[in-house]
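Thread: "does anyone have the structure for this chain?"

Original post by V.I.:
We have the sequence but no experimental structure in hand. Need at least a predicted one for the grant figures.
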Amino acid sequence: MTTRKKDSASNTSTTRRRFLKTAAAGAATAAVAAPAIAQNASVINMRWQSTWPSKDIFHEYALDYAKKVNDMTGGELKIEVLPAGAVVPAFGLLDAVSKGTLDGGHGVMVYHYGKQTALALWGSGPAYAMDANMLLAWHKYGGGKELLAKLYNSIGANVVSFPYGPMPTQPLGWFKKPVTKADDLQGTKFRTVGISIDVFTGLGAAVNALPGGEIVSAMDRGLLDAAEFNNASSDRLLGFPDVSKVCMLQSYHQNAEQFEVLFNKTKYEALPDKLRAIIAGATEAASAEMSWKAIDRYSQDYEGMQSKDNVKFYKTPDSVLQKQLEVYDEVVAKKSAENPLFKEIVDSQRAFAKRATQWEQDTVVNRRMAYNHYFGPNAKKT
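Reply from O.Q.:
Generated one for you, tokens below.
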């Protein structure tokens, strides 16, 4: 009995020593591994700004984009997006990102029109009959990406640009009364941006380029007679129905536009290859998601402005649309003569558009007939 107790005690003591030795070895291994884990878990933080006020759906899109990148990188890259004016004014985004004051930003290329007029070709004008998605196709597959990099290099901008998020055709704008002919624009104090500044000036308007967050207050104070911004949701959230009850739909001044994500080039090129690949994929995913959300939200607010805000919508007369095209051609001819890069981009867009739009016009069925069949005044009720 005594011998067995001693043997049992000896075995227990040996087991404890083995356990403690193993635990100590594990702790030592963990201590060695800890720094490596901490290094892998390091987070790259970026501070961005959008060119939109916080209440605009466009700022929501900027937040959506940042969340998409943050989630897809597993938190290795964290983008914080501030609203317009938090660090710099909306039109100061390009300089701020280029200088490194901001790591990146969310806006549109037409806001950089004062730096290089050709940048507006990614958003202002009829896009040679392309819609915004086709313009993005030209950018990715028709040489636009390379031309955009060339443009930014021409003005010494230290940025990397990702166009994304195709926008539907924008309204002609908000007016005091319906526009029935091109001469109605003569002398109108009007807000627009990009090449549209030149187009509306050519139509006789007195143009003032203002950021989105400043338009409604300018109309309310009488500094503007009329203005355009972008879409039903943005226009409603920014308060356009409070200062006007007339909105003219359809226009060629911004028939095809998209958003732009800007990275400071130095900061972007310092990112690991894996994160840069994720950013490229996240941008395309965010582009699709944004366009789907836009259909849902814009249609809701379009309906709401009619039923609740008493806004009257009118189609812009064909005579005004035709005049826009004629004036746009005059503006493009002048800019092309002044700026070789402008002409190079126009030629590239036209070549791509001729092929792509012929395919589209010949192939895609006109949905108006189907709409009238199901929802028009003579549609059968089910």
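V.I.: this helps a lot. Residues 100 and 363 are 46 Å apart (CA to CA).
O.Q.: and The domain at 43-166+257-296 is CATH 3.40.190.170 (D-Maltodextrin-Binding Protein; domain 2).
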